[in-house]
Design brief:
CATH class: Mainly Alpha
Oligomer: single chain
Distance between the termini: 44 Å
Number of strands: 0
CATH topology: Ferritin
Largest sheet: none
Strand content: under 5%
Radius of gyration: 14 Å
């Protein structure tokens, strides 16, 4: 593993860990029960993704609480119609971030596909 790959994988691992806290915090904040359930499912999947990256980096990282504090505040200020597209954009961006390492590490290909689905899931919440 070269330095750039390691940097990408560690950043991905950190992002997945942070997303677990973020989605759980959103689930505790949102008004819609179906949104809360979706966010809890996404949190669980992000935890599995973090484990995939942990297996590749062989490093234990700690989640940062920044997004878990910020996103519930943004939900209260912006509302779901403006916040959810931003969350989806973040998920779709992970697809591009993971693409360079997915070819070399097949487990990342599966995670990459999940991230697109996560973006789609968040956007679908706005249709309910």
């Amino acid at each position: 593993m070269d330095r750039n790959e390691q940097k990408t994988l560690l950043k991905a691992q950190q992002g997945e860990l942070d997303a677990v806290l973020m989605y759980n915090a959103l689930a505790d904040t949102v008004k819609s029960r179906s949104d809360a359930e979706a966010f809890r499912r996404l949190a669980a999947e992000e935890g599995k993704h973090a484990a995939v990256f942990r297996g590749l980096t062989d490093q234990a990282l700690k989640p940062k609480k920044t997004l878990a504090i910020l996103l519930p505040l943004l939900y209260r200020v912006m509302g779901r119609k403006r916040l959810y597209p931003l969350i989806a954009k973040f998920e779709y961006g992970a697809v591009d971030t993971y693409a360079p390492v997915a070819a070399k590490y097949p487990a990342v290909e599966s995670v990459k596909g999940d991230e697109k689905r996560h973006g789609d899931t968040v956007m679908s919440l706005l249709k309910e």
